[in-house]
Amino acid sequence: MPKLIPVSWKFLVKRLNELGFEGPYSGGKHPFMIKGDLVLTIPNPHKIKIGVDLISKILKQAKISREEWLR
Asked: What are the entry keywords (predicted)?
C-alpha cells in the first residue's frame, strides 16, 4: 500500500475540494470545510508541510480512505 507523505496546506485544500468538500471557510480559530452534514476543521495555513499523523487524523474525520486520498 502506498504511504502518505507530508503535503502543503494548498494541496490539502485542493485535494479535499476534489473529494467533494466546499471551502475553506474562516471561523473560530481554524478554517473549516463542509461536505453535506460533515464539517471538517483543517489546520491554519503555514509555510511548513502538514505531517502524516495530522493528515491521517483529518482523513479519518472526513471518512476518506487512504486509497481514495492517494488516487
From this structure: Endonuclease, Hydrolase, Nuclease, RNA-binding, Stress response, Toxin-antitoxin system
pTM for the predicted model, two decimal places? 0.92
Q: Which three cell numbers stand for residue 19?
A: 473529494
Cis peptide before 24 (omega within 30 of 0): yes
The residue written with cell numbers 483543517 in the block is: 42
**Residue with cell string 466546499:** 22
Average pLDDT for residues 49-65, to the nearest whole number? Answer: 96
Domains belonging to the chain, first-starting first, are 9-70 (3.30.920.30)
Residue 51: Cβ within 10 Å count: 14
Residue with cell 492517494: 70
